[in-house]
Automatic annotation (TrEMBL):
Uppermost EC category: transferase
Pfam family, one: Glyco_transf_28
Organism: Heyndrickxia coagulans (Weizmannia coagulans)
SUPFAM superfamilies reported for this sequence: UDP-Glycosyltransferase/glycogen phosphorylase
CDD domains (UniProt xref): GT28_MurG
This protein's name: UDP-N-acetylglucosamine--N-acetylmuramyl-(pentapeptide) pyrophosphoryl-undecaprenol N-acetylglucosamine transferase
Main location: membrane
List of residues binding UDP-N-acetyl-alpha-D-glucosamine: T10, G11, G12, N124, S195, I250, Q295
Domain Glycosyltransferase family 28 N-terminal: 3-143
Keyword terms: Cell cycle, Cell division, Cell membrane, Cell shape, Cell wall biogenesis/degradation, Glycosyltransferase, Membrane, Peptidoglycan synthesis, Transferase
GO molecular function: undecaprenyldiphospho-muramoylpentapeptide beta-N-acetylglucosaminyltransferase activity
């Protein structure tokens, strides 16, 4: 099978696409994949590293306010569609999938107009502008949250989950904690604020250090590269604590997630897919700076199902954070209830569900 994949802008759109390609390649090494992204986006750096053929188009997103820039964006979109049609005719894909971000617009639209089977993958509980637009033209809409179904034509919708979930599943590896200089026998919470970190979370966590030091659990805290030095200076004033490990970034996140008992994080779709696949309880602090406030809506899905607690950034404080961590890590019954609830929401075979949809569409087109 020949597949064109497109997704860009943020890791939340790119990582699921890469996870899907990796899974397909493992089981079907003869599958040919082509990735279409923007020339300056994160995908232009991440995709070639995976030795996946990459072609770029020039496209920008729409401004949400009235702006002359939107006229230019329409022109770029039409030019992008023309280039994508050329790429598609040359590559001759059996199916085209878009995993989000404005770069998907011309790619998936061009494929639909050329009568190539098309799918969009929506990671969030509330779709973005591009996927709302494309949903009118595609054959299938793959979703990760049941609540996203109401935004699309029900006949097109299929619940597949997020392919990233398939990459984190595995045996619990407590030994990973030794690499942080921590004990393998104590309950452990991982705290992070996304790849770049989050200042409000950093401030609350640093203020909690003295409190954490007295607890019968341990803390791994990833500050984000941008904030690491500032946090280290503040820690120096308080003094190092034996049950707390501070790092700028975690490169082996799947292994670390399999070693910990609780996660405190933002509520990005990829993170939530990983947490639920592993059955990990969480305390979610949604970013208030995202489109359509989708992180809060993502978090509410886990909250309403008993898999997480939600703490809004405006309500975040050291006292509230420590209290919620205590409530989970120091109460085995509470933790086990949340583990079961998270596991119930998790879709561990997401990549295969998505691949099956693609395979069926391609077969139907050939028949």
């Amino acid at each position: 099978m020949k597949i064109i994949v497109s997704g860009g802008g943020t890791g939340g759109h790119i990582y699921p696409a890469l996870a899907l390609i990796r899974t397909i390649k493992q089981k079907h090494p003869d599958t040919e994949c082509l990735y279409i992204g923007t020339e300056k986006g994160l995908e232009s750096r991440l995709v070639p590293r995976e030795s996946i053929p990459f072609k770029s188009i020039h496209i920008t997103g729409f401004k949400r306010s009235l702006s002359f820039e939107n006229v230019k964006t329409v022109a770029r979109f039409l030019k992008g569609v023309s280039r994508c049609k050329k790429i598609i005719r040359e590559f001759k894909p059996d199916v085209v999938i878009g995993t989000g971000g404005y770069v998907c617009g011309p790619v998936v639209y061009a494929a639909a107009k050329l009568h190539i089977p098309t799918i969009i993958h929506e990671q969030n509980s509330v779709p973005g502008l591009t996927n709302k637009f494309l949903s009118r033209y595609v054959d299938k809409v793959a979703i990760c949250f049941e609540s996203a179904k109401s935004f699309f034509d029900e006949k097109k919708v299929v619940l597949t989950g997020n392919p990233r979930a398939s990459e984190v599943i595995g045996e619990k590896r407590r030994g990973v904690l030794s690499g942080f200089g921590l004990k393998t026998t104590l309950p452990t919470v991982l705290i992070f604020g996304g790849s770049r970190g989050a200042r409000p979370i950093n401030e609350a966590v640093v203020k909690s250090f003295s409190n954490f030091a007295q607890k019968n659990y341990q803390v791994i805290y990833a500050t984000g590269d941008v904030h690491y030095e500032a946090v280290k200076k503040e820690i120096a004033l308080i003094g190092e604590k034996g049950n707390i490990k501070v790092v700028p970034f975690i490169h082996n996140m799947p292994e670390v997630l399999r070693a910990v008992d609780l996660v405190v994080s933002r509520a990005g779709a990829t993170t939530l897919a990983e947490l639920t696949a592993l059955g990990l309880p969480s305390i979610l602090i949604p970013s208030p700076y995202v489109t359509n406030n989708h992180q809060e809506k993502n978090a509410k899905t886990l909250l309403e199902n008993g898999a997480a607690f939600m703490l809004l950034e405006k309500d975040l404080s050291s006292a509230k954070l420590v209290s919620l961590i205590d409530k989970i890590l120091l109460d085995r019954e509470q933790m086990e209830k949340m583990q079961a609830a998270a596991r119930k929401l998790g879709i561990r075979d997401a990549s295969w569900r998505l691949y099956e949809v693609m395979e069926n569409l391609a077969a139907k087109a050939k028949s």
